[in-house]
Amino acid sequence: MNKLTWSALAVLGAVLASSASAQYGGGWGEDDESTTSAEPAVIELRVCNRSGKDALVAISYVPVDQTRFYNRGWFRVNDGECKNLVETSNANFYFYADVVGSDRRWAGNHTLCVEYPGPYNFYSGSSDYCAEHQEVRKFVAASTQEPGTYTWNLDP
């Protein structure tokens, strides 16, 4: 089993989710203060692969109208392709990618569990360990304060 800070992630997810509903409840840039929206402002998470190689992408995000981080992989994004992966109403999310058939990867500093060969999907839990069939990877932390499309580029 691999040690990681799931309890810290769970606490962060709960804080972010509760602040997200206040922060994103009425949408951004409304000119008329009397206008309210029952729908959360949606962010579409997109990956564009400009690396010269096909990639497999994993993502951790809070689905629209939910409060817990959800982990999904592997989305195949071929070289030269842009692909819309998921939608969220939470301003914070995490990406990780592997080049198909190579040791090349796009990684960051945020520790999360993945499953190989995939596909996989599971909610983040409160454990400090990955399950026996999972592996630790370092995800890239990303965020936006604007609704619409957020694009993560896989560059060479």
- Can you give the mean pLDDT? 82
CA-CA gap between termini: 32 Å
Q: Tell me the series of helices and strands, N- to C-terminal.
A: HEEEEEEEEEE
Low-confidence stretches: 1-35
What form results from the Cα inertia axes? globular
Q: What percent of the residues sit in helical stretches (DSSP H or I)? A: 10-25%
Judged by helices, strands and strand pairing, the structural class is: mainly beta
- Work out the strand percent: 35-45%
Number of domains: 1
For the sheet with most strands, the description reads:
7 strands, antiparallel
Q: What is the helix tally?
A: 1
Radius of gyration: 16 Å
What is the strand and helix layout of this fold?
Layout: H1 6-24, E1 43-49, E2 55-61, E3 70-77, E4 82-88, E5 92-99, E6 105-106, E7 110-115, E8 120-123, E9 134-143, E10 148-154
Parallel strand pairs: 1-10
Antiparallel strand pairs: 1-4, 2-3, 2-5, 3-8, 5-6, 5-9, 7-9
Describe the structure.
The protein is mainly beta and 156 residues long. It has one domain (6-25, 41-151). 12% of the residues lie in helices and 42% in strands. It is built from 1 helix and 10 strands. The protein has one helix at 6-24, and strands spanning 43-49, 55-61, 70-77, 82-88, 92-99, 105-106, 110-115, 120-123, 134-143, 148-154. Strands 2, 3, 5, 6, 7, 8 and 9 form a 7-stranded antiparallel β-sheet that branches. It has a 3-stranded mixed β-sheet with strand order 4-1-10, with no helix packed on it. The protein is globular. The two termini are 32 Å apart. The model is unreliable at 1-35 (pLDDT under 50). It comes from Arenimonas soli. Residues 1-22 form the signal peptide. Pfam families: DUF1036. Keywords: Signal. This is DUF1036 domain-containing protein.
